[in-house]
Fold this protein.
Amino acid sequence: MGEVALPLAFGLGIASFASPCVVPLIPVYLANIAGLSILSDNPPTRRHILISTLLFVGGFGLVFILMGTVLQAIFGAIPMSVKQQIAGGLLMLFGVLLFASTKIPRLNFQSRLNMGRVKGTGYIRSATLGSVFAIGWTPCIGPIIGGVLAMAAYGGDVLAAIAPLTAYSLGLGVPFVIMGVLLGTPRGTQAMKFLTQHAHVATIVGSATLVIIGVLIFTGTV
């Protein structure tokens, strides 16, 4: 499983970024990351936006990694054969739920936290906002993050759980960084349009991937 876990988790992170419930709000989050001055005559520098976006990514990455390590600490003592059945079954279930969300809008939801209540200023606020993103959007990307958490709990120890969650956070975070760099440019606008038009494709690919890996883990193939 180790040889496929990291690239798989990274790809699922990208699928989360491109999901229908995250894509429409990317500009909102990036504007909050950059600060209100992005709309003024003196917008922040690209360096400021880049650092703020990296801290935002670090904020939600830390939350996801903590979730994975806690689950591994709780279920780590379970025999590997049992964890194999549980992890495989959950991955298949999450894959089905993710596909169902493309047909049943009510399954495609999120808890939209009031970003105006996020405390702190500047870079501190960016990191805090990343944590808020992780908490508020977990219901929306739940099947995908749930699948990655299942892979993390399937590992041998707590340290083994960190790697797939880190890869997932990077898969979700790298596109955020790229879009942050392109914020306010024609290329950024084109990229947003493309993502919006193809969001459901990413969800379908992600759901199929979860089911396939779930079957492979459940049967002991990987």
